[in-house]
Amino acid sequence: MNVHDSEKVAALLEGAGLVASPNEQDADLLVINTCSIRDKAEHQLYSDLGLLRAWKAERPGRMVAVGGCVAEQLGEGLLGRFSHVDFVYGTHHLRSVPALVEAARTGRRSVEVGENASPMRFDLPMASRSEPGQGLRRKAFVTVMEGCDMFCSFCIVPLTRGREISRAAVEIESEVRSLVERGIAEVTLLGQTVNAYGRHDVRRGQAAVAGTMPFAELLARLDGIPGLERIRYTSPHPLFFDDALIRAHGDLERLCPHVHLPLQSGSNRILEAMRRRYTRERYLEIAAALRGARSDLVLTTDLIVGFPGERESDFEATLSIVEEAGFVDSFSFKYSPRPGTGAAEMEATVSGELAQERLVRLQALQTARTLAYHQSRVGQETRVLVDGASRHGGGQVSGRDPHQRVVNLDPGPGEVLLPGDFVAARIVEAQPHSLRGVSIGSRLKSSRARADEGETRQRAGEIAGGP
């Protein structure tokens, strides 16, 4: 979501006549878009702002701005603490940025924060079709809803992103069609609880945004857009997985075989303290149902260790569910108390040292499981959307397959692979965090079509073999 917000602000500034700078030293305006979901990111902001004091003083007319979640959280406090910050804008006020720049040019320091429930906040210009030195953009984010009404005890998002508001389906479809016309082949639908899209018919006594629908219906509507090759979404909440959404993963041609489904803990006791509203057992039911709908589906997750009151038995429950759920990858973190949340009032019973030790154990287990999955992929064929040059060098390019795995790809003899290319590839090597593949230089059917063919062959074999 923050990456997409940055794209929107960049597009707004371009529309106001500003030109993107290739580096910090050539820039006249530096905008920091912030995250406050963990305190580490907030502390990094303070460090960066301290360094930018000298940057601003180097050349008259330079401006520093802070946006995003920390801006929403602290507002005027940022202007008071950092005298060289020119303006601050919150998560609902991206449209205000060009006006805030003009005010800063006249020496007026400004703050725009607070909830804005108007659907007009979704009506923002699209990012540029190409990126400097990066070639044609083939991927895009599309916001379908914002905010969160869940109020998990550890999470500051409802305080910084506001309450849920869904965007009209016709607007979403129109944006996706426009993106496809501009060359976009893959869209990722965004929302704090993205599969809660359209669930409110009435909100705080007022009619919800007209024209919303259940999330599975929205996916089906987008799946029918000619030219769109891949659909992804993030991040869903287990509470809002219904039968229709699960079936969509088996039925929709363009819906990728990957779900990032945050878990947070494998312990029912901790899940209750986190106010997650589901149990370990229900989570595993969803995981099994998704794989029942599509056998090659990959599941990834988010996990927190060291939550207040977490016992060794609770942590061991998290370790066991990593194996039972078969996570291919996970983002795992030590618990970080956030102001205004319920958990911030709980007694911190897990020391930083113990939380770190648990995190190391968890990540070691996940690394082993990720490598095992990657090893199972060796010899398979897949389709890679190239993002750019691989950090491994040697002429390799890097991209993602439909399962959201990074594939570092060796071009074929005399082959030039560019960002935005779809490439048929064979996986030849498994690495802990990525796959290595080679271009096979032939048109490859979609993974959905291959899976369907495989299921047909299996059924034919079963019929031929009898009981």
**Widest β-sheet, arrangement of strands:** 17-18-19-21-20
* Distance separating the two termini: 51 Å
Continuous helix count: 14
Question: How would you classify the helix and strand content by structural class?
Answer: alpha/beta
Report the helical percentage: 25-40%
Strand content: 15-25%
Query: Judging from the principal axes of the Cα atoms, what is the shape?
Result: globular
Give a quick summary of the entry.
By secondary structure, the chain is of the alpha/beta class. The chain has 14 helices and 21 strands.
Commentary on this structure:
The protein is of the alpha/beta class. The chain is built from 14 helices and 21 strands. The strands form seven sheets. It has a five-stranded mixed β-barrel with strand order 17-18-19-21-20. A four-stranded parallel sheet has the order 1-2-3-4, with helices on both faces. Strands 7-10-13 form a three-stranded parallel sheet, covered by helices on one side. Helix 5 links the parallel strand 3 (87-89) and strand 4. The radius of gyration is 23 Å and the shape is globular.
Throw out a few tags for this protein.
467 residues; alpha/beta; 36% helix; disordered C terminus
Please give the structural blueprint.
Blueprint: H1 2-15, E1 29-34, H2 39-57, E2 63-68, H3 69-74, H4 76-81, E3 87-89, H5 97-105, E4 110-112, E5 130-131, E6 135-136, E7 139-143, E8 145-146, H6 157-161, E9 165-166, H7 169-181, E10 186-190, E11 202-203, E12 206-207, H8 215-223, E13 230-234, H9 243-251, E14 258-260, H10 268-273, H11 280-293, E15 298-305, H12 312-325, E16 329-334, H13 352-377, E17 381-389, E18 397-400, E19 406-410, E20 422-430, E21 435-439, H14 447-465
Parallel strand pairs: 1-2, 2-3, 3-4, 7-10, 10-13, 14-15, 15-16, 19-21
Antiparallel strand pairs: 5-6, 8-9, 11-12, 17-18, 17-20, 18-19, 20-21
Helix pairs in contact: 8-9, 9-11, 12-13
